[in-house]
Amino acid sequence: MALRRLPVFERWLVGGVAIVTPADRPDAATRLEGTAAALWIELAETDDLDEIVARLAATYQADPETVRADVGVAVHDLEDRGILRVDS
Amino acid sequence: MSTADPAALSRHLAAVAAFGLAGAPPIELTEPLSNDAWVRLLASVTRERLVGVLASAIDAQAVPVTGEQLARMADLHEEVMLACIALEQYLHRIADVLEPAAIDFAVVKGPAAAHGWALDASERQFGDIDILVRSADIDRTVAALEAAEATRFTPELRPGFDRRFAKSVTMAWGPFEIDVHRTLAPGRFGLDIDEASLWAGVGASGDETHAPATFTVAGRPFATLTRPMHFVHACYHAALGDRRPSLASLRDIQLLAAEVTIDEALAIAEPWGGAAVLAHALAEAAERVPSEVGDAHRWARGYAASERDLDDIASYHDVDDRFASTARHSLASLPLGQRPAFALALALPSAENLEARGLTRGAHLRQLLRRT
Fold first, then answer.
1. Run of H or E residues at B173
2. B77 vs A7, A10, A13: nearest CB
3. Phi-psi region of A82 (alpha: psi -120 to 50; beta: other; left: phi over 0)
4. What is the Cα gyration radius of chain B?
5. pLDDT in tens, B320-368
């Protein structure tokens, strides 16, 4: 499964929170924190979901299945907000 | 907590302005400032447009803060960055208007800095949009933006003045200011800029020495100046703009000085008679944003400006009447054949311009005579 960032206006705030606004939804700013923010950072390096899960599990020394579940929730949320696209 | 006196706060502010730059002094804070001192530092950082740089310093743990101070900083940073995002949305709207009209434009200053030489886009705040167009295109650029409901602050002085003599046309679009430039500075130094050389390299793909003269915002590419040209522009802006340039403007110079050699900058500025402008700007940047990289500062320390150049630069900082001072110097620098049109525009502006400024023709002439 490939995850692709969609065109967004983006800034990172003090404390590691991102604000992203889809290019085609200028009034729909979204704050990314926690897992969503970590996912967004990883998407700059790779579009492969399995690789992203592995990298986050290693970074945070967390159970990969727990990470996969958390990332899955974030992916669906960001997809709904027009920030990323899922390619099967 | 540290209760910093004004001198200490001034040192902290300079260190914040130089944060992340090579050779910069450390920020000498080992414990959070008192709330009173923190409020004063935030006010200074806001005035100097360094909110994003302070945020980076906090994230890097170079500035210790209390939980309450961090929360206040987060609110301020978010406010500033949301404004930048909103401005970038207007940048897309500008492209939507100008591209179908086949009007070439380059983005300069704020967004170009944020997505170009700034250490991170979230460090570099900006409060308006500046675009550069060719002189021949400035009238139809303004017309195209007006058709999209942007409004110019003041009607043109006289027909033809903008494309021949103006630095820029300032417009309002929604809540924001859009500056449509045809040159990089007002007055003599702006008039002396050769347009062909200014546009050389705009939008170029870059090479092993310098980054491309383009940047992308939300998936859309924008043309901008080359890095050497941005460096020259940053120096012109600092030396010839506000009497006391912001620390953010001086930080731009220091960041660009790390990428651009003085020979590259002089190859641009010397044919324009602008070497003294570079030296002036570099001297102020070195004094107020301590960081020394590259060869530009060494050159600046050894540069001796002519009396004429010093006098012309000083005219931009005339505390009594900058407009009159720069107008006199502009008139003196123009070729003889262009002086009558320039003088006529200043002496006899259009009725529309006078009405917008609330002046009768007689009142304008009396004001002009007093000022010149």
1. strand B168-173
2. A13
3. left
4. 21
5. 778 888 888 899 889 999 999 999 999 999 999 999 999 999 999 888 8
Partner residue facing A11 (CB), from B74, B81, B219: B81
- At B203, the pLDDT band (50, 70, 90 cuts) reads very high
Q: What pLDDT sits at residue B207?
A: 85
Three-point CA angle B226, B117, B75, nearest 5°: 140
Domain boundaries, chain A: 2-81
Residue A14 has its nearest CB partner, among B74, B88, B89, at B74
In angstroms, the separation between the Cα of residue B54 and the nearest Cα of chain A is 9
CB contacts of A14 in chain B (<8 Å) are 55-56, 58-59, 70, 73-74, 77
Q: Provide the CATH number for the domain formed by B6-371 in this structure.
A: 3.30.460.40
| Most A-contacting residue of B65, B85, B90, B126 (CB-CB within 10 A), to test interface | B85
- DSSP strands (E only) in A1-88: 2-5, 8-13, 17-22, 30-32, 84-87
Beta bridge pairs of residue A32: A18
Mean pLDDT on B30-55: 95
What is the dihedral angle through the alpha carbons of B19, B72, A14, B231, rounded to the nearest 10 degrees? -40
pLDDT at B327: 87
Smallest CA–CA distance from B88 into chain A, residue: A9
**Amino acid letter at B370?**
R
Strand (E) or helix (H) holding B216: strand B214-217
Distance (Å) from the C-alpha of residue A65 to the closest C-alpha of chain B? 30
Helix axis angle, B67-98 to B51-59, nearest 10°: 130
pLDDT level of residue B209 (50, 70, 90 thresholds): confident
pLDDT tens-digit series, residues B181-193 = 999 999 999 999 9
Domain boundaries, chain B: 6-371
Interface A:B, Cβ pairs < 8 A: 54
Query: Are A12 and B92 inside 8 Å of each other by CB?
Result: no
> Would the pLDDT of B166 be above 80?
yes
